[in-house]
Fold each of these.
Amino acid sequence: MTIVDALIGPVSKLLDKLIPDKEARARAKLELIELQGRQELEELNLQLSAIIAEARSADSWTSRARPSFMYVMYLLILFTVPMGVISAFEPEVATGISTGMTAYLRGIPESLYALFGTGYLGYTAARTYGKVKGVER
């Protein structure tokens, strides 16, 4: 929460008390909302600039790291299909594989899962931003 967000509610109530004219009060509130919108847009641009710079990097590892990480996660999810087939024919083997994978995945620190979520959302936001700006197809 930014300072502007924290101030919107109290300032809006203060405007109700200080400005008796309804039209002037509405204009003041509109300016306050526009200020909040500009602040949020500036924050979004700042966050996306790092992601866009990373995607445009000449270093192939830097520009492909986030999509590659997503592909690994997709592979883990797709691995459930053969596991379903294995469990139909050899339930004990499927249970052993499942127990091993569960133990492995629980061993991964929570911060890496958070990193994946942040990376996924950041990649999606950067792609959307690039498409809106007409930079990407």
Note: The longest helix spans residues 22-55.
Amino acid sequence: MALKKVAVLVAGSWGTALARVLADNGHRVQLWTRNPAQADEINRLRRNEKFLPGAEIPDGIAATTDLSAAVRDAAAVLFVSPSSAMRDVARQAAAFIPRDALVVHATKGFETDSLKRMSTVLSEELGRPEQQIVVLSGPSHAEEVIRRNPTTVVVAAKEIACAEAAQDLFMNDSYFRVYTNPDIVGVETAGAIKNIIALGAGLSDGLGYGDNAKAALITRGLAEIARLGEAMGAHALTFAGLAGVGDLIVTCTSRHSRNWRAGSMLAQGLPLDEVLTRMGMVVEGVRTTKSAYVLARRHGVEMPITDQLYAVLFEERPPGQAVEALMGRVKTHEIEEVAGEARRGRTPG
């Protein structure tokens, strides 16, 4: 494969880790940041200490604060900005991105006000068909990818040729394996909503409820993700794959998970504002809880875990009361709930 110039926007933890994958694959990587001090740290010291402390940035990555220079002549542009900033970053970059450049994003969340998926936001701002936008997702902590730990992800696009082009760009034989999937709705929905369940897992662990409770939360959380995803047009099998159960497991069980850490702090009684201040980085699950809460009502889907986390985050419900509300729900049949409710025209609970 011919070596390419790839622009990565922005230089957070995940953007930096994926930049390393691209550089290891021999590509010339332009990593964009708004922060001149961060660009200087990456270029001079080969470090990005705020986001990936102790990790070494390879020489194949050059940081810049000049967005036009970063994306001009790029064969591919990778957007890894927070969901809240995606539209603004895409709007600024749109005029400079070559028309034939591959566009990929690796952001897990919805636009808060519009509730749109990131591929839709990029399509609108870049003026290109949504079916040509690719999403990269799956169980992949930046802290492990930057150290070349074995990782497997999925790239999804409605046009499979675009997904295959992204697969060729990112995949290598040593530590980063990439599968393709045509179900971009399912991959984006799973990647966003698993952050809500990870908040709940951190909250459960912070309350000392143990492994039984967390296993139940992950399992029932996956059911919620699949219900909403299918209502939005996703394929059920996507949620049994890397972007679904794979990403859910790693985010709910790892010390690297920002959402898990935030949930654990909430369980200790810290107010949400203080939790977010202490984290110092974006916790996508907080915004996504708002989005999923509204989307569930829009699509007529029952999401009890999401409802209770919404109450904890935004209505000051004590975490213990939220757990009691979940445990006290009306009894139901698990297999009937998973497989039979849709056939009878009722929303499962």
Note: DSSP finds 16 helices and eight strands in the chain.
Amino acid sequence: MSFARVRALVVVGVLAVLALAFVTAALLRDTQRGSASGDTCPAGFKRANVALREPKDVKINVFNATDTVGLANGVATDFKNRKFQVVKQGNDKKRVEEVAVLRFGPKGVASAHLLMAYFLNEATPEYDPNRDDEMVDVVIGSSYTQLATSTEVNQALSAAGAPTPPPGTCAAKEGDN
């Protein structure tokens, strides 16, 4: 065997040993062990569902908080056409000036995140930590014009990033729902 081949084998061998040493050191010094499983939730915190949902899995109530007659029915129909489960529709007693208000609890965090995109992230979220259902109340306000198109929804979801748990909650573990 020539000297050049021996030298090449020695260099490759040394590089392989160094790579193995670095990988072993990285695994042994890993400070993130256990945190991805969701087991680090402080006592008293509620679990929030932050797994992004499909429209067909989202249950909503649609309420009209404007003087426009029939607005809740029209918006509810638009949401049904987009495959959302509209459970209830009607009028809200309190008038809303915003585009919309989304009222939800810990189990509705991901659903509200998706719904925000249908209002181009201009809806006002109202989180209620004591609410125990997965329902989201969509309260249509006087600044509402129309729901976003599918392209606009995708862009709004991309701009918003992943859903995050509200203060006082932790991300739900898989299967907690």
Note: Helices lie at 3-28, 71-81, 109-118, 150-160.
Amino acid sequence: MTTATTTDSQTATTALCAVRPRVPVDRLVTDLVPPRHFANARFATYRANPAHPSQGRALARLTEIAQEIAAPRRGLFARRKPAPAVYLDGGFGVGKTHLLTSLAHAVGEALGPVHGTSSAAYGTFVEYTNLVGALGFLPTVEALAAKKLVCIDEFELDDAGDTTIMSRLMRELADRGVALAATSNTLPDALGEGRFAAQDFQREIKALSDRFETLRVDGEDYRHRDVVTDSEPLTDGDVAAAAARPGATLDGFDDLLAHLATVHPSRYGALLDGVSVVALTGVHAVTAQEVALRLVVLVDRLYDRDVPVLLGGSGDTRGLFTEEMLAGGYRKKYYRALSRLGALAEEGRKLV
């Protein structure tokens, strides 16, 4: 459940800063499904660009993997065959998440529910690490071992603890015959590069890398970030006026950034329950990396839920992160966020 300033879902929530999301533990498991933005994503709706043949190859291979997971295992040695483990690597905006959610849908629809829930689990990297923190390691293994497929989106290791947790979790699931699939903007043997002392954890990183069949997905950002970020910025007055609608929130940018520091990133999705538009005044460049990374997670959850944004202040998403950030170890996260935020901001402008 989520506590907010209102109880009527048809009434605008005053501000995200007023929301203190409380997520029951059982919801952490039941929420492991493809997000709203990809509810209709299927292999048949993925449009592979013939100019980038790797897209078609990835589509064909994932279709095979879905059939392999869904097919019943027969014979004396069927259990000894390792379950598939696939890793989609490529830039932002090339359709990796579309492919991953299509795989989850295909397996879930082919096998039907298991104990009342989907046979495929789907979540972001931070959601799985938070699940371990909330349930404990062994209960998490037991909960996910009941699935036929576990999908991990945005697989990027930001600290040594996450490296160890995810390496061990995947090993346990793979040993129990659970298929694994992940997306990232970083090749599995380069996870953690530029972010922490990766050389001290090469064994764990190599263990992760060795478990996956890597599928490269090349292409251009289909959200056309260079286009959607060139619009004229909105004034704070425009933003405040446009936020006067049901389901909209209105926050000062600095206030929201401060509030995000008080909410665990795994709860940012719950923070947006019932929200149809997010309006922000006083938007400016973010200079602290820990603040920027929290903002990246919020942008991802906004994108998952197709929530348009209204950006006042500078309103220039291109200058949201510093040049140093865009050249550092988290650069692919930041560029993904800019791509997604630009698309959401363009949707927000249509409301003005």
Note: The longest strand covers residues 277-283.
